């Protein structure tokens, strides 16, 4: 264990990590920990003062709801007023895992945790560290991504430390996360169920299991609706953005490459430092800019695991603008493009 500006850094193989961090949580503290999606910033979901500290540490708007993490399906009985039939189907297939269910909340869940809503977002994570921490603390843990609000989500403990050192009690370093984008969020408070945020569980998988599933307009949006109510994390406010300006170029693969090369020439003439987030198939095309490869277009899991890390690396390189190749929105591509469009502030060029 080491200290950084008052924040304890535990290695995942530290035998005291889970015990000490569970004690911190029970005492009203805030702890960052790895999940299979991104690093979460956790506090006792039923303790309003503790949850308030999450919002303060992140600089998160108070009407942006949090996800409550549980270790056992039985905990739902204490947190929600009704368990729809779909919960059994979804939990049997996808829990533990990157799926969050929005349900009507019990009064025991404070409004600060739900962003003032009468619903609560709940998931059972599929990561040993997260599950061990939940089991040891014996608490439902509210945990958004462990980054400053608006920044790219953290996929390593180093990302957490860069944003939050000195703002929280502890970080458990469990190495890089696997999926790299936040959980899928589906609302079960209406019929049919509605996809509120795409993630590691795809829309196609949900539809295959449940039949009819609606997609909220915010999921595929190419423009921000600042006036709408945030029914789920990630639906409102600036998200996932590096310091550099981001521009997403969408369309056919060769046309995307040609447009990025044209834009690169224009920005270089203006004296700007240009970065390109490329797929492996196109990466050799960009000889004049600083290039980082997201992965193969045929391997969307590889790309999803890399996008937030690469956005942060471009900031370290102090590029002025990042040009990003768009992808298909089929399968995991929907979650990737949802994040990239938001990172760009919906600055999108279709070619």
Automatic annotation (TrEMBL):
Reaction catalysis annotation: L-threonine + hydrogencarbonate + ATP = L-threonylcarbamoyladenylate + diphosphate + H2O
Pfam families assigned to the protein according to its UniProt record, in alphabetical order: Sua5_C (PF03481), Sua5_yciO_yrdC (PF01300)
Top-level enzyme category: transferase
YrdC-like domain mapped to chain residues: 15-201
Source organism, top-level taxon: Bacteria
InterPro entries in the cross-refs: DHBP_synth_RibB-like_a/b_dom, Sua5-like_dom, Sua5/YwlC_C, Sua5_C, T(6)A37_SUA5, TC-AMP_synthase_SUA5
Gene Ontology CC, one term: cytoplasm
One term of GO molecular function: double-stranded RNA binding
Keyword ATP-binding attributed: yes
GO terms classed as biological process: regulation of translational fidelity; tRNA processing
Alphabetized Gene3D superfamilies for the sequence: DHBP synthase, Threonylcarbamoyl-AMP synthase, C-terminal domain
Binding residues annotated for L-threonine, in chain numbering: 37, 69, 123, 143, 183
Residue sites binding ATP per the record: 60, 64, 119, 145, 153, 197, 240
Compartments it resides in: Cytoplasm
EC assignment: 2.7.7.87
Keywords: ATP-binding, Cytoplasm, Nucleotide-binding, Nucleotidyltransferase, Transferase, tRNA processing
Function: Required for the formation of a threonylcarbamoyl group on adenosine at position 37 (t(6)A37) in tRNAs that read codons beginning with adenine.
Record-linked NCBIfam families: L-threonylcarbamoyladenylate synthase
Homology family: Belongs to the SUA5 family.
Protein name: Threonylcarbamoyl-AMP synthase
Lineage of the organism: Bacteria, Bacillati, Bacillota, Clostridia, Halanaerobiales
């Amino acid at each position: 264990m080491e200290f950084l500006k008052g924040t304890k850094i535990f290695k995942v193989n530290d035998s005291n990590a889970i015990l000490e961090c569970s004690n911190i949580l029970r005492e009203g503290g805030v702890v960052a920990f790895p999940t299979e999606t991104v690093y979460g910033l956790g506090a006792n979901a039923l303790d309003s003062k503790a949850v308030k500290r999450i919002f303060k540490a992140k600089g998160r708007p108070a009407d942006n709801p949090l996800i409550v993490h549980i270790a056992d399906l039985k905990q739902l009985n204490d947190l929600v007023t009704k368990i729809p039939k779909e919960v059994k189907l979804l939990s049997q297939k996808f829990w533990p895992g990157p799926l969050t269910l929005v349900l009507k909340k019990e009064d025991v869940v404070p409004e600060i945790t739900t962003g003032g809503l009468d619903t609560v977002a709940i998931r059972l994570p599929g990561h040993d560290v997260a599950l061990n921490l939940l089991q040891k603390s014996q608490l439902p843990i509210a945990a958004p991504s462990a980054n400053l609000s608006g920044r790219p989500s953290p996929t390593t403990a180093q990302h957490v430390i860069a944003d939050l050192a000195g703002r929280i009690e502890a970080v458990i370093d469990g190495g890089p996360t696997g999926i790299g984008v936040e959980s899928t969020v589906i609302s079960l408070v209406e019929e049919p169920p509605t996809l509120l945020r795409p993630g590691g569980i795809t829309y196609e998988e949900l539809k295959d299991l449940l039949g009819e599933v609606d997609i909220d307009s915010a999921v595929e949006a190419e423009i921000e609706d600042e006036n709408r109510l945030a029914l789920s994390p990630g639906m409102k406010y600036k998200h996932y953005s590096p310091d550099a300006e981001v521009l997403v170029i969408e369309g056919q693969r060769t046309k995307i490459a040609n447009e990025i090369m044209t834009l690169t020439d224009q920005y270089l003439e203006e004296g700007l430092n240009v970065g390109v987030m490329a797929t492996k198939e196109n990466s050799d095309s960009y000889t004049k800019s600083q290039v980082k490869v997201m992965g193969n277009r045929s391997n969307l899991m590889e790309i999803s695991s890399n996008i937030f890390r690469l956005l942060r690396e471009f900031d370290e390189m102090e590029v002025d603008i990042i040009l990003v190749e768009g992808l298909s929105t089929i399968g995991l591509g929907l979650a990737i493009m949802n994040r990239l469009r938001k990172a760009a502030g919906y600055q999108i060029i279709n070619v």
